[in-house]
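For concreteness, we quote verbatim a single protein encoded this way:
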Amino acid sequence: MKGVQFLVAFVVLALASSFASASDPSPLQDFCVAIDDYKSVFVNGKFCKDPKLATPKDFFYSGLNIPQNTSNPVGSTVTPVNVVQIPGLNTLGISLARIDYEPYGQNPPHTHPRAIEILFVQEGTLYVGFVTSNTDNKLFTKVLNKGDVFVFPIGLIHFQFNIGKTNAVAFAALSS
């Protein structure tokens, strides 16, 4: 009898697990415009403005069309567009960056522990790559030209290097 009960319990659990789904939970609200106000609701590291007080300005940034100064030791400048620049990005899980490179400038090896990055080359020629983190530490590289796109998987060390004799510009979207 105990064998039958065990079998029934096993079948019920097996069927229940086949109906389970693994996904991100739905947001509790449409958006959470970030503000520095301790009297508001605290979500994901930033306080939320009362949604009734949100304006289009909370979801807007202007200036990614402006080239940045690359006169620094690495020969590149990253212009981020995240929750600091657009408070409405708070809790949405996405950000953007413009990267300007002088000839032979680089965005040195770095990682984004919680973000996938997708890079679009607007102008110039970049040599890009990442290293896998498993036991073989394989290097994936590619030369990108204007209009090309490359993905850097989450958490992996990656880099970009302007191999051209002219300035280069790329835009990166990050999933965090």
Notes: The first helix runs from residue 2 to 18. The chain has a mean pLDDT of 86.
